[in-house]
Amino acid sequence: MSPIFRRRLLDAASAPYRAVGVVHHRWARGKLGGDAIFTALVDGAVFPDQARVLDLGCGRGLLAAWHLAAEALAARGEWPADTHRPPRDLHFTGVELMAREAEAGMRALLPHYPGRVALSGGDMREVALEGFDVVAILDVLHYVDHAAQDLLLDRIRAALPPGGLFLTRVGDANGGLRFRISQWVDRGISFIQGHRLSRMWCRPLAEWVRILEARGFKVETRPMNGHQPFANVMLIARVPQAAG
Ligand SMILES: C[S@@+](CC[C@H](N)C(=O)[O-])C[C@H]1O[C@@H](n2cnc3c(N)ncnc32)[C@H](O)[C@@H]1O
Questions:
Q1: What is the distance between the alpha carbons of residues 9 and 237, in angstroms, rounded to a whole number?
Q2: C-alpha 163: how far from its chain's center?
Q3: Less CB within 10 Å around the terminal CB: N or C of the chain?
Q4: Is the minimum distance from the CB of 143 to ligand 1 under 6 angstroms?
């Protein structure tokens, strides 16, 4: 995606947040504009058409905002011919521990994308996972302990259909200084957002891959830091087509 078109998509994806206040709008612009994962997901054609996406730890629903804005631009014929067409007819369900963030996301997105997005407050460890083609957990897994991570991965694997996708981003605990920088930034932002600071449960990348493969996922990893000095990795974990 060209930088000029990326800017156009950023404007479209962040615009709905203007209606819920300057803080939300600035947050959406900053995150969508500064985090390489959003462009990478569309450029890499990661989500299939018509996917029902469950976004755990969805914050204000930026994953939905980005994809639905891309889809709307493409539907209006405003998508460049040299850029991978974004997925069509996506539906997003989001669950977020900080209910007020999910509510702000709903107030922003629902008027623009009725019937396509449902964000609510809740704990990802307790929600029903059935009925989705994609489960996304971006920068969230390390907030719950290793036993809870293991259980959640078991449940996600059991709930996804053949061909289903589990998308996550984690920090590589073997990433040295870059990993420690990302942890400091994470703690700072969590504090500003009003989270109680507690331990984080991280793992080396090789261990993340191992525990996903042990559950039958086929795993692809991509460094996902953009210009930031982090040790973040996106993991695209697919349930094989033939699996039950
Ligand atoms: C670093 S933010 C990432 C937000 C979003 N996934 C994104 O990429 O923009 C982590 C989010 O996970 C949420 N979170 C942490 N523990 C959670 C849990 N147990 N259930 C649901 N959300 C949780 C936090 O409230 C926070 O909004």
A1: 27
A2: 19
A3: C
A4: yes
- Return the residue matching tokens 């709008």: 25
55, 93 in Cβ contact below 8 A? yes
Q: Is the CB of 95 under 6 A from ligand 1?
A: yes
Which of these, 72, 15, 42, 75, lies nearest to 167 by C-alpha position? 42
Q: Is 35 in the pocket of ligand 1 (CB under 6 A)?
A: no
Kindly state the tokens that stand for 128: 């029903």
1 Cα to the center of ligand 1, angstroms: 27
Cβ(30) – ligand 1 distance below 6 Å: no
Domain ranges of the chain: 1-45+59-121, 130-244
Q: d(Cα 13, Cα 11) in Å, to the nearest integer? A: 6
Tokens of 194: 């009003």
In 45-76, which positions are buried (b, 16+ CB within 10 angstroms) versus exposed (e)?
ebbeeebebbbbbbbbbbbbbbbbbbbbbbee
CA angle 165/170/176 to nearest 5° reads 150
Closest ligand 1 atom to Cα of 98: 25
The closest residue, in CA terms, to atom 16 on ligand 1 is: 143
Q: Give whole-number Cα distances, 64 to 12, 158, 228, in Å.
A: 12, 24, 23
Q: Which tens digit of pLDDT belongs to each residue from 77-106? A: 999 999 999 999 999 999 999 999 999 999
Reply yes or no on domain 130-244 having CATH 3.40.920.10. no
Q: Is there an atom of ligand 1 within 6 Å of 98 CB?
A: yes
